[in-house]
């Protein structure tokens, strides 16, 4: 069986990664920490198992943004790439905008909507928590 392979990387091309197989979920995260680290009003992540995710070229820089949380980004161009937390052992949450073909994902839900910006309106019927 051929598994889907999705590739991505940072804006300057120094860091390239691949994800093999389908994501566990694709969520909008409305939390203030993700907002700050991506500098975007909302962040969308594909959650995958660590063994699905491989950096194939270059090396991301890691930053502990809060206890138990590590985010990675490209030190050259600043593109944020991943989120990992001790709350989600064995998972890598990959920022969807860094994939080469982000249109090939289907969001499955919204999390931390208590922190959602009041002027941001996304009209879908996905589960919200
Ligand atoms: Zn880069
Ligand atoms: Zn978040």
What report would you give on this structure?
The chain has 129 residues and is mostly beta strands. It has a single domain (5-112), classed as Beta Complex (Metal Binding Protein, Guanine Nucleotide Exchange Factor, Chain A). Helices cover 5% and strands 40% of the residues. The strands form two sheets. The protein has a seven-stranded mixed β-sheet. A hairpin with a 6-residue loop joins strand 1 (5-9) and strand 2 (16-20). The longest helix has 7 residues, at 32-38. The model has no long low-confidence stretch (mean pLDDT 97). Bound molecules: zinc ion (2 copies). Residues 29, 31, 33-34, 112 line the site of one zinc ion (ZN). One zinc ion (ZN) binds next to loops.
Give keywords.
129 residues; globular; 7-stranded mixed beta sheet; binds zinc ion; mainly beta; 3-stranded antiparallel beta sheet; 5% helix; Metal Binding Protein, Guanine Nucleotide Exchange Factor, Chain A
Structural class estimated from helices and strands: mainly beta
Instruction: Provide the spatial order of strands within the biggest beta sheet.
Output: 6-7-8-9-4-3-10
Spell out which ligands are present.
zinc ion
Q: Please state the average pLDDT score.
A: 97
Percent helix range: under 10%
How many distinct domains? 1
User: Beta-strand percentage?
Assistant: 35-45%
CATH architecture: Beta Complex
Largest sheet: 7 strands, mixed
CATH topology: Metal Binding Protein, Guanine Nucleotide Exchange Factor, Chain A
Q: Which residue ranges are poorly predicted, with pLDDT under 50 across at least 5 consecutive positions?
A: none
CATH class: Mainly Beta
Computed over alpha carbons, the radius of gyration is 14 Å
